[in-house]
């Protein structure tokens, strides 16, 4: 839907008329204020406590305080190539080019310096918010009525367009008498939101059914109901955490060969709406967990706290990060046990820790395989030369997981749970084969960024899962 404005009188053609462009949503496909917020928050955990006070003092104060603490990764911002091309054409014609934005001056100057396409910059300061009418007044004072062309994208530009000789839009909002530089970008549709919440990753939450199945609770409707509620709660909360991680990792994701296509990194979805959606998902997850039982709520709360610590601190420290990931996977299994009121077997806990530690290391190995010896994995702290350590430790963990499973198959406890326990040795062999094959794929560079997701589309992995299921069924 277009926006309606009063049509201004057309200006005479001026060959050296300034070309003025907006920043957020126009030159850049994202919102630099939100980008700055999450970068600053990553460096100061207490930031949400002072944000309301800064906002009460004025939006310009909020912008200035955030920019004084941190700036977004300017070099990786998703620039609008259509606007960049228009700026280059204007400079080639000898026209002045101007960046006019409500963003803080520090952010605006950094963006202008990165692109090297501007003669002047108009931006907000700690005492003056250069938005809408304030921006229009500043531009008219500098260039006169109809003395500049303006490229914008949103309703905030409605106050500026009538004062421009030529009015261009790269968004949904089109001024009267204006034209689009390009087709109006579609807001991220259902597909983008589904990719944002990582629906494919919900397969990891199937782990909540492992403990009930291992305790032979598969004939209990009550157990199935509790485990299903726990599964749904983890899906909602994990999706919220994925969104939060994406918000904090925007710069690192844009430097990654595949993560740069994620909806937030690519500028497909508004950061503010994504943050709000994460809060909604957290609330839904909390309600579902409470419905599954108080112990499930506590387990999910611990999961969120550990994940927050991982996101804020541990993910940047080698070794610590993979141990934290192994604990988070194992917590899913523990939550399933709490949901149905069964004890978590020491055998299952030990196998889970070693197996998921191996898979976490496998994920790092896949990333490190693309790096040179002295290159650093963005936002993770690993270097290319760590590859040998990661591979050795990961293979050792895979062998340890298989050994735990073998010792369990040989234990006296198995004979009380299974009529034909010898069939479990088939499962041991299949698990060892699968882990070995996954590591072989990673070491030759044919592994996806996430081994669990790779397994969901890998025919051999599905065959191994079926073989394990058959072995367990025959053992019962």
Q: Mind explaining what this structure looks like?
A:
The structure is a single chain. The chain is mostly helical and 476 residues long. The protein folds into 2 domains: 18-180, 3-Layer(aba) Sandwich (Rossmann fold), CATH 3.40.50; 190-475, Tetracycline Repressor, domain 2 (Orthogonal Bundle). The protein has helices at residues 32-43, 47-56, 59-69, 81-92, 105-115, 133-143, 190-196, 210-214, 221-248, 250-254, 271-292, 294-312, 320-340, 346-368, 387-409, 412-417, 424-443, 451-456, 459-475; strands at residues 18-21, 97-104, 120-124, 148-152, 167-169, 179-180. Strands 3-2-1-4-5-6 form a 6-stranded parallel beta sheet. The N and C termini lie far apart (63 Å). Residues 4-12 have low confidence and may be disordered.
Summarize the structure.
The protein has 476 residues and is mainly α. The protein has helices at 32-43, 47-56, 59-69, 81-92, 105-115, 133-143, 190-196, 210-214, 221-248, 250-254, 271-292, 294-312, 320-340, 346-368, 387-409, 412-417, 424-443, 451-456, 459-475, and strands at 18-21, 97-104, 120-124, 148-152, 167-169, 179-180.
Calculate the mean pLDDT score and round it. 89
Total count of strands = 6
Question: Which CATH architecture of the largest domain is right?
Answer: Orthogonal Bundle
CATH level-4 homologous superfamily of the largest domain: UbiA prenyltransferase
User: What composes the largest sheet?
Assistant: 6 strands, parallel
Strand content: 5-15%
Strand order of the largest sheet: 3-2-1-4-5-6
């Amino acid at each position: 839907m277009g926006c309606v404005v009063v049509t201004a009188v057309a200006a005479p053609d001026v060959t050296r008329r300034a070309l003025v462009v907006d920043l957020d949503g126009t030159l850049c496909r994202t919102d630099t204020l939100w980008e700055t917020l999450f970068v600053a928050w990553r460096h100061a955990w207490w930031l949400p406590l002072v944000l309301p006070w800064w906002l009460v003092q004025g939006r310009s104060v909020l912008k200035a305080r955030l920019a004084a603490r941190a700036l977004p990764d300017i070099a990786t911002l998703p620039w609008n190539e259509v606007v960049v091309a228009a700026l280059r054409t204007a400079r080639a014609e000898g026209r002045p080019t101007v960046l006019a934005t409500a963003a803080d001056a520090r952010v605006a100057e950094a963006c202008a310096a990165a692109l090297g396409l501007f003669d002047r910059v108009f931006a907000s300061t700690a005492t003056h918010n250069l938005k809408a009418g304030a921006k229009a007044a500043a531009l008219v004072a500098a260039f006169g009525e109809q003395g500049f062309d303006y490229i914008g994208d949103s309703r905030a530009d409605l106050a500026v367009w009538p004062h421009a000789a030529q009015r261009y839009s790269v968004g949904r909002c089109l001024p009267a008498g204006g034209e689009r530089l390009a087709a109006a970008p579609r807001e991220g549709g259902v597909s983008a939101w589904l990719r944002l919440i990582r629906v494919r990753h919900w397969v990891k939450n199937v782990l909540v059914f492992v403990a009930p199945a291992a305790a032979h609770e598969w004939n209990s409707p009550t157990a199935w109901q509790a485990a299903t509620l726990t599964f749904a709660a983890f899906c909602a909360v994990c999706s919220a955490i994925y969104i939060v991680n994406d918000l904090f990792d925007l710069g690192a994701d844009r430097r990654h060969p595949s993560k740069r296509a994620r909806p937030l990194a690519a500028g497909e979805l508004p950061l503010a709406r994504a943050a709000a959606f994460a809060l909604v998902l957290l609330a839904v997850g909390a309600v579902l967990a409470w419905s599954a039982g108080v112990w499930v709520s506590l387990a999910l709360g611990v999961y969120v706290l550990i994940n927050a610590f991982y996101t804020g601190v541990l993910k940047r420290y080698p070794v610590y990060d993979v141990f934290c990931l192994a604990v988070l996977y194992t917590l899913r299994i523990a939550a399933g046990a709490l949901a149905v009121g069964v004890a978590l077997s020491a055998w299952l806990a030990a196998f889970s820790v070693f197996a998921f530690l191996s898979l976490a290391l496998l994920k790092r190995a896949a990333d490190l395989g693309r790096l040179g010896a002295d290159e650093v994995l963005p936002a993770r702290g690993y270097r290319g030369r760590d590859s040998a350590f990661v591979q050795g430790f990961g293979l050792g963990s895979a062998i340890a997981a298989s050994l735990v499973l073998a010792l369990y198959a040989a234990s006296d406890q198995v004979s009380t749970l299974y009529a034909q326990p010898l069939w479990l040795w088939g499962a041991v062999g299949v698990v060892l084969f699968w882990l070995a094959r996954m590591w072989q794929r990673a070491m030759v560079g044919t592994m996806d960024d996430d081994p669990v997701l790779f397994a969901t589309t890998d025919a051999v992995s599905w065959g191994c899962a079926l073989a394990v299921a058959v072995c367990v069924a025959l053992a019962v």
